[in-house]
Design brief:
With 636 residues, the chain is an alpha/beta fold. It contains 21 helices and 31 strands.
């Protein structure tokens, strides 16, 4: 029997309000369709006049006056994308404005999708970040006028969302802090927990954040009533200091034991009391845990679902093996372990987890039933896979013009980029000051995948970069295998974004060599035995496939290409045309042709892709074509 059972509840984040895309004229309809096809909006809408001017199936969009549609979808956390004039949208939303903490994100787009303006909710509602993603997906430009974006400083009141944290502190405190930063004055930073990778970004380096040493941080964390002399940004699990602005990583595990059929209200009250007693923030809770015998306890299930917290269950044997400060013989006799709450909290917190609150018992009031024991442990690493995202990026051959809009949009979304240094260098012109890069070595693919997946499980949005297409000899396969090895409740969002492969660009540069059946073979035997590679080459030769060869030759593998050449020559003419494409999509790009029998093996390297024609491929001048066999000489 395992020490932990799967999560029983849906711990995914609360369902976000739908994104509405509204067109103020019929000219907006093509762009509305593009937004929907790209997955950027959940619902389309048109004004009556605009709807009357287009032909579309019933139910394809909402129809009403712009004022009514906007009012109906005006809610905290919502997104409104309006295609029309900025002045018109400003007048429409003016009567609905309340405060920056509750206003939705409002984006204004022109009918061609060339300009995306975050009109409202730039930081706290995420309009600036969403504008970047929408513009990238449409091939347009995000027009940002916010001080942080213009000056390259960190958007202190917004950046934590992408790192998987929850924001605390009052709207007044945040407004004061942002005004101080806009004036170029210093803000005190206290970070006791959570990933500090964000601090390496150039935006953080230029944001006048004065970090404190560990001793000072500890003293401040233990004095929740101290009034900071200057505005304070705190990243911790603690309840904020008076006047401080806070980000809370998900690091706390609540170990809970209870009597059978305990009231939900009592469990909630016990948790609140425990957190307050320990001086810890509810927003920093990663999940709850208990003994497996409590897996069917309705109050615990409801508590987990109410807060979207994972609910971990452990066996009595596993719990009994955890050293705790206050074991109980009574509990041991009843449950088979001397501790439920403390042991469950520590076990869920993982290696080096620390108990922040010893078990405390809360009894029922007159209108409640049962009794609840709560203990709190703090993990060394955040746990928020339901907030995290892992995006597999195919960066293309190297030319940024060949990066797909979908991949570009995903890069805009992620504050952390992981990849081999050369591939990250090619994307460097796109990296914003608030984004970091984590360079890896060429042959350490598993390490890069594990690093990216670990960060995503902490709640961070991560881009894992491959050259070309990540699903073609890239990182997508290994990353997906590691992701699938995780329990379902531990898996962050996983998306693969296509890229243009070297094979595709080589073919485009050469003409049309891939017009009939083709295959790709990597000549690297680092991961695949040469005997297997050779069998595949023989099959490709006998099947008369056009063959693209990746990783054809290196200093340590200088004979395999000659062997591949010999195998292919057994089944096709000596004159078979070959495309030699080197450094595709980069300034050093070279594309040339040769015959298969005269392929200059010694000049080929790892930066070269070879496309070897089939028996019908031909070279005419500087163009190579593989006929597909269309009947007749003319195509209609």
């Amino acid at each position: 029997m395992t020490s932990e059972t799967p999560v029983l509840n849906d711990s995914s984040p609360p369902t976000a309000p739908p994104r509405l895309a509204l067109g103020l004229s019929s000219r907006a309809w093509p762009l509305l369709q593009r937004l929907q096809q790209s997955g950027l909006t959940d619902q389309l809408a048109l004004t009556p006049g605009a709807a009357a001017a287009i032909a579309a199936p019933d139910g394809a969009f909402l129809v009403n006056s712009a004022a009514v549609l906007i009012q109906q979808h005006w809610q905290e956390g919502g997104v409104l994308m309006v295609i029309g004039a900025t002045g018109a949208v400003t007048r429409l939303i003016a009567p609905l404005l309340t405060d920056k903490g509750s206003d939705p994100a409002v984006l204004v787009l022109d009918a061609e999708g060339q300009r995306v303006i975050p009109l409202l909710g730039g930081h706290q509602a995420g309009a600036e970040q969403l504008s970047r993603e929408v513009a990238a997906a449409l091939g347009g430009e995000a027009v940002l006028s916010g001080d942080s974006a213009v000056s390259g400083r960190l958007a202190t009141d917004a950046f934590g969302h992408a790192w998987g944290w929850k924001r605390g502190g009052t709207s007044t405190n945040w407004t004061q802090l942002m005004k101080v930063q806009a004036r170029g004055e210093a803000v005190r930073l206290i970070q006791t927990m959570g990933s500090k990778l964000w601090q390496s970004s150039s935006a953080a380096q230029t944001s006048q954040l004065l970090g404190l040493d560990a001793e000072t941080e500890s003293a401040c964390s233990g004095n929740a009533k101290a009034e900071p002399a200057i505005p304070t940004l705190e990243i911790s699990t603690s309840i904020a200091h008076a006047g401080a602005c806070t980000w809370h990583p998900a690091l706390l595990w609540l170990g809970i034991g209870c009597e059978r059929d305990t009231s939900l209200n009592l469990v909630q009250r016990a948790v609140t009391i425990a957190l307050e007693e320990a001086g810890l923030a509810e927003d920093a809770v990663a999940g709850i845990s208990s003994i497996d015998r409590k897996g069917d306890e309705r109050a615990l299930q409801d508590l987990a679902q109410l807060h979207h917290w994972p609910f971990r269950l452990h066996t009595a044997t596993a719990l009994d093996g955890v050293r705790v400060p206050t074991p109980s013989k009574v509990v041991a006799a009843e449950m088979g372990t001397g501790s439920v709450a403390e042991a469950a909290a520590l076990l869920s917190a993982g290696a080096n987890g620390q108990l922040k609150l010893h078990k405390r018992i809360t009894h029922a009031n007159d209108d409640e039933q049962g009794a609840v024991t709560v203990a709190i442990a703090e993990s060394m690493e955040a746990h928020s896979p339901q907030q995290g995202e892992l995006h597999l990026i195919g960066s293309g051959p190297g030319d940024l013009a060949l990066l797909t809009p979908e991949a570009r949009s995903a890069l805009e979304r992620c504050p952390a980029w992981v990849g081999y240094g050369l591939y990250l260098d090619l994307l460097e012109p796109l990296r914003r000051p608030d984004q970091i890069r984590l360079d890896g070595q060429l042959t350490m693919e598993r390490d890069r995948c594990q690093q990216a997946l670990s960060l995503a499980r902490q709640g961070i949005r991560v881009a894992l970069v491959s050259s070309g297409d990540s699903g073609i000899y890239g990182m997508a396969g290994l990353a997906l295998e590691l992701w699938l090895d995780l329990p379902e409740d531990e898996r962050p969002r996983f998306d693969v974004h296509p890229g243009i492969s070297a094979l595709q660009l080589a073919a485009a540069k050469a003409g049309a060599p891939l017009m009939h059946d083709f295959c790709t073979v990597s000549l690297s035997d680092r991961l695949t035995p040469w005997e297997v590679i050779e069998r595949r080459l023989e099959g490709a030769a006998k099947g008369d496939f056009v063959v693209a060869l990746y990783n054809p030759r290196s200093k340590g593998r200088d004979w395999q290409l000659q062997r591949a050449k010999d195998i292919l020559l057994t089944q096709r003419p000596d004159s078979t045309p070959v495309v030699m494409a080197r450094q595709l999509g980069r300034q050093e790009e070279q594309v040339s042709f040769c015959r298969l029998d005269s392929l200059p093996v010694d000049t080929v390297d790892m930066l070269t892709v070879l496309v070897i024609g089939n028996s019908s491929s031909r070279l005419d001048g500087d163009r190579m074509v593989t006929p597909r066999g269309y009947p007749g000489a003319e195509l209609s």
